[in-house]
């Protein structure tokens, strides 16, 4: 298997993260133009006046920089150690798919239990990927 294929799900998740970052100013400007917030509401982070629709993209962006960091490191280790196989690649794409679904739920209708189920699934996939790699390297 071509080892560089593991970089495709990495690039997909990075691309998605960059798209999500664009929602932050979009939603903030929209709230600002609607008179719901002012620039001072962001002077020390986000004030309590910032409405949820303007808060969620920023929170979700931070979420895309947390657990996925472990995914990025994992994929680089698999790449440099030549441990990429079809199972790892499939699991990596499933991880990316669950992260995208998690984003759509969080940024869309935001049902907490649905979001939790998808997040737990993505975490399980990431754990399986790390476990497989650990066993291969032992």
Please tell me about this protein's structure.
This protein is mainly alpha-helical and about 140 residues long. About 75% of the residues lie in helices and about 0% in strands. The protein has five helices and no strands. The protein is elongated. The model has no long low-confidence stretch (mean pLDDT about 95).
The termini sit apart by: 21 Å
Number of helices: 5
- The total of beta strands comes to 0
* H/E series: HHHHH
Largest sheet: none
pLDDT averaged residue by residue: 95
Radius of gyration: 18 Å
- In terms of DSSP E residues, the strand content is under 5%
Approximate shape: elongated
By secondary-structure content and strand pairing, the structural class works out as: mainly alpha
Assign a percent range to the helix content.
over 70%
* Poorly predicted runs of 5 or more residues: none
In a nutshell, what does this entry contain?
The chain has 138 residues and is mainly alpha-helical.
Topology:
Layout: H1 7-33, H2 52-63, H3 67-80, H4 86-107, H5 112-137
Helix pairs in contact: 1-2, 1-4, 3-5, 4-5
Name the descriptors.
mainly alpha; 138 residues; 73% helix; elongated; 5 helices
């Amino acid at each position: 298997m071509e080892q560089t294929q593991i970089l495709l799900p990495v690039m997909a998740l990075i691309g998605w993260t960059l798209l999500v970052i664009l929602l932050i100013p979009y939603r903030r400007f929209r709230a600002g133009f609607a008179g719901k917030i002012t620039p001072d509401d962001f002077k020390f982070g986000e004030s309590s006046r910032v409405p949820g629709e303007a808060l969620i993209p920023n929170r979700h962006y931070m979420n895309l920089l947390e657990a996925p960091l472990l995914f990025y490191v994992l994929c680089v280790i698999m790449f440099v150690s030549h441990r990429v196989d079809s199972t790892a690649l499939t699991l990596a794409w499933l991880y990316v798919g669950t992260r995208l679904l998690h984003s759509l739920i969080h940024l869309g209708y935001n049902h907490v239990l649905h979001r939790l189920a998808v997040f737990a699934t993505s975490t399980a996939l990431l754990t399986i990927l790390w476990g497989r790699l650990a066993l291969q390297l032992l």
